[in-house]
Write a structure and sequence with these properties.
The protein is of the alpha/beta class. The chain is about 35% helix and about 20% strand. The strands form two sheets. It has a nine-stranded mixed β-sheet with strand order 3-2-4-7-1-8-11-10-9, sandwiched between helices. A two-stranded antiparallel ribbon has the order 5-6. It starts with 7 loop residues before the first strand and ends with a strand.
Length: about 375
């Protein structure tokens, strides 16, 4: 089944808070849901499909459907880490195409800045073999950066340009956690976290959340909103297979990206705007290569000298400031990637970073640990005339 034009994103909402000590996680989910539905011009009574992941408290969809006052006929609690919500868009489109639902609500929320939140799951089969030697997200991504530098000559200064570009965009976002513009020197002179990654190579940690409303094309045409259609989607997983398939310089986006582009019938050269998951600067560089925006090993040159800055470079990316500067709610940046892509396609991004005539965008994400086992999801979105 092709997902090309099978569904549309009608509503998108990003919670403005980055610190919520006086709010509960269910409350954040509810406020995000209300915001996305209002953006779409719909109400809770219109929703007949609900999508969430393990950030949803209680028994996931069972608890949240009741809490939100929904009556649904389809649910999905797929869990793939940070890329989950990009996957959810595709899964919602599948459900809509199959007649399982017609208005799907996707929510994400969490409070990792306000409360202790455990990142790793002790029961995972790999935990007994990896965590005791110090494998964390930081060290895992640091290994990827070090290997890319070793194989291709990538430099810390080139990685720093990714943070610089994000900061140039974040200055125009009133909700960004880090709105200050930084330089390459600022990044490489910030404290080392996991060699060769510095503090400013790492994303922020925020409370908050977001929500999306995915609807059938028939419903989309009845709403007073721009029609943003899903053209293509791909998903993939990648693991070290006990060390037999360890490749630190290629992500699962090398599989999810081509699948999405093929289904959409477009190429990376056609893309006007890119939402690229940015848990670390190296995460962006690898995905740009794996999606086909540049050849493997040329990511450092591609991102340098402001090439990702809107209005300056060849490929505007993460014009809200991304996870590096704006928002990375509950350690999961996938939903915000879709939200900013929708803003760009609608012409509703901050005027200083709005891409002219933006009619085709990609949103892609990584979930899990890039240097070990992880998943990727990619979607291609188009504004219908």
């Amino acid at each position: 089944m092709s997902l090309r034009n099978a569904a549309c994103i009608a509503g998108a909402f990003e919670h403005p808070t980055r610190l919520a000590p006086d709010m509960t996680t269910p409350q954040l989910h509810a406020e995000c849901a209300a915001g996305a539905l209002a953006d779409a011009g719909l109400s809770v009574t219109d929703v007949d499909g609900y999508f969430c992941a393990t950030d949803a408290p209680g028994f996931g969809p069972i608890s949240m459907i009741d809490y939100l006052g929904l009556t649904v006929r389809h649910t999905d609690s797929t869990e793939m880490g940070g890329c989950t919500y990009i996957q959810h868009v595709a899964h919602a489109a599948q459900a809509i195409a199959m007649g399982k639902c017609s208005v799907a609500l996707i929510t994400l929320a969490g409070r990792p800045r306000s409360e202790a939140v455990q990142r790793f799951r002790p029961g995972a089969p790999e935990s007994a073999f990896e965590q005791w030697v110090g494998l964390t997200n930081h060290t895992s991504y640091g290994m990827c950066a070090a290997r890319h530098m070793h194989e291709f000559g990538t430099t810390s200064e080139q990685l720093a340009w990714i943070k610089v570009a994000a900061s140039h965009h974040a200055q125009h976002n009133p909700h960004a956690m880090l709105p200050k513009v930084v330089t390459v020197e600022d990044v490489v002179n910030s404290p080392m976290i996991a060699d060769p990654l510095h503090r400013l190579d790492c994303c922020v940690t925020t409370d908050g959340g977001g929500a999306l409303v995915v609807v059938s094309p028939e419903i989309a045409r009845t709403l007073d909103r721009p029609v943003i259609s899903l053209l293509g989607a791909g998903e993939a997983t990648k693991g070290p297979s006990g060390g037999l398939a360890l490749d630190l310089t290629t992500s699962a986006a090398a599989q999810s990206g081509p699948r999405a582009f093929e289904e959409a019938g477009v190429t990376p050269a056609d893309i006007k705007y890119a939402s690229i998951y940015d848990s670390f600067t190296i995460t962006v560089l690898l995905q740009l290569e794996d999606l086909g925006f540049c050849a493997k090993g040329e990511g450092g040159k591609f991102v340098a000298d402001g090439n990702l800055i809107s209005g300056v470079g060849k490929l505007p990316f993460n014009t809200d400031g991304g996870g590096l500067c704006n928002n990375h709610p509950m350690f999961r940046g996938g939903i915000t990637k879709v939200i900013e892509a929708v803003r760009q396609l609608r012409g509703e991004a901050a005027p200083a970073v709005q891409v002219p005539n933006c009619d085709l965008a990609v949103a892609t994400g990584i979930g899990g640990s890039l240097g070990a086992r992880h998943g990727a999801a990619t979607i291609i979105l188009e504004r219908q005339s």
